[in-house]
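Structure tokens please, single chain.
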Amino acid sequence: IGDAVVAGPRVVTLDDIEAFADLTGDTFYAHMDDQAAAANPFFTGRVAHGYFVVSMAAGLFVSPEPGPVLANVGLQNLTFTVPVYPGDALTVTLTAKAISPRVDSDWGDVTWDAVITNQNGETVATYDVLTSVAKTWPAS
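Here you go.
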């Protein structure tokens, strides 16, 4: 508990936002129309999808090779706090929050506190990542 991983930064581009909209079908005006987004009291222009921001963060902290993390099994308490605009550089910090070994299994559960910040140090999203993790690696 308390061990942390910091990953990033990665710059969000307008192409990222448009590709995510194309892939998901989420074409909400705040992601696609600069003038309409700027007319919204929450934004000053087009913004990234919150779910893109969370997915991008996973791409920063997930290691591609097999390892002790067996699966991400959920998210809890997701909150978006500051809009993300094209050109923002995002960094994610994961801190181990809770470790729950399973007595009858070779794996347990680890809950990570996730905080995504922008280039100004502002928190743009917070949530808990729930993972299933092997007790030993490589697995026996």
